[in-house]
Every structure is written in C-alpha cells, then in structure tokens.
Design brief:
8-stranded mixed β-sheet, single chain, alpha/beta, 282 residues, globular, Rossmann fold
Length: 282
Amino acid sequence: MNTSAATLDFDRINYLLNPAQFAETRVTIVGLGSGGAPACDHLTMNGIRLWELYDHDILDAVNLVKHPRMRRDLGRLKVEVQRDWIIDRNPSAEVNVYADDVLQSGNFERSIKESDLVLVCPDKKAVREFASDKCVEAGVPFVTASVFRTGIGGEIFGYIPGETACYRCLQLYAVANDLDLTDEQLGLTEDEQHRIYGLGDEGFRASGLSIDIQTIALIQARLALSILLRDSGSSMPTFKANWIVFGNRPAKGIFTKHFDVRQMLLRPQRLCSCVPDSLLED
C-alpha cells in the first residue's frame, strides 16, 4: 500500500460520486468546532479540496469530549488544526485559514464571492443571519446547522439562490406558523428546567454528546453535497427538502421517538427583504 501518495485515492467511491468533479469547487466554512470539523472532514473525503476556513477559537482541553481532534493539538487555533488534517488526508488540497470573527472580518465577503458554497456551523443565530445575508447578496448557496439544547436534535437549513428561502425567510415562516419553539414554550417543570435543560443556569454546560452533535453535522454535510451535485448529472439522489429538523432522541413536546425527522422545501417568503419580487410566493 502506498501511504505517501500525493493525492487522495477515491477509487472506492468513484462509482457512487466521481469526486474529481469537485476539483475546482471551493467551500467556505464558518466554525470548526464539534460540528464544523466533522462536516468539513466528510466533504474533504468526498472530494472537496479547496477550502476557506474561519474560526477564531483555539482547541481547549474541555473540547476533547466532543471535538474529533487530538490532545497534541491543544492550544492551537482550530483553523490551523483543521488545515493540517485536510492536507494530511488530501495532500493536493489548498486551504486558506482565517482566525477571524466573521462578523468583523475583512476577508469573509471575498471568501463567499469566490466560493461555490458556504457552511455555517456556529450555534449563534447572529452568525447564521449575517452569513445568510452575505450569501444572498453574493448569490452563493449556504447550509446552516444548529444543535438543540442538550443535543436532543438539531436543525439543518440550505439556501439555493433563485430556488429556496433564505435563513431570514425561515425565521419569518417559523414565527408565522407557530414553529418558533422557544424555551418558554416547552412547558417544562422546574426540575426539568434545571436538571435536563439547565435553563437560567449560567454554569450549565450540557451542550450535547459528540454522537448527537456529529449526527447533525453529517446531515449538514449530506445536504451540502446534495446542493453541490444538483446540476452535475450525478446518479446520487439529491435532497428534495431544504429544511430538516432531526430528533436524536425523544423530548417532551418536540420529538416523539428516536431519529424523528421532519423535512420540507421552503420557498421565499413575501415579507423577507432579501427576496426579489420575482421569487415571492403567491
């Protein structure tokens, strides 16, 4: 076996995907934590070799219970750790790293404009909104993902310019249809709030098991791959939905069973200022 090959050998998956079609596909990813890193890993292993990586955090010891990297990487910037992983896996990869907060970055808009897709992985609504706005302006697809409290499940949402709703459309639709589930709407007892969800407890750190987080990350990577394949003529089936809510386990008032999933194709919403009139729903 040749372990020093100058590129990644895709022979075992060529009949499914033909990763060579992604040779010039560039992806920007925001957030390389316990969800972003595995999403990036799997897209790399499926042919994405041109990357723009954004994360201003370092890998800390507390991350090891969830993050897929190694103890020897502690204290290093996550973007540098991920760059090294990508290049080790595919030596022909080209990776640009930015230890930037994208909300203040002078590089982010340029990266978006040069990319074929943007992955948004932080669990921060402000970042998802900002990235959505910038992708809509640039006409670039994106896929966001967020994990619900304690990892009970998560939400994955994709935007395709000219075809689907943007992230702000999603919020408008959720509020209008009483789907914007807040902590107050869960109807939890006081004991449940403290013991299970940690609501109101500033020291609460149960953000989810690595299994729970990476399940959502894998769906995000799969939706990203689907969007990239949509015009390729590939035999690989693509998603019909762009909004996926996935339950890792039963949760009162939200998911009735393990692996509960809801999917829909959300079209542009009339009240969203990001949407041109020609795309508005009737």
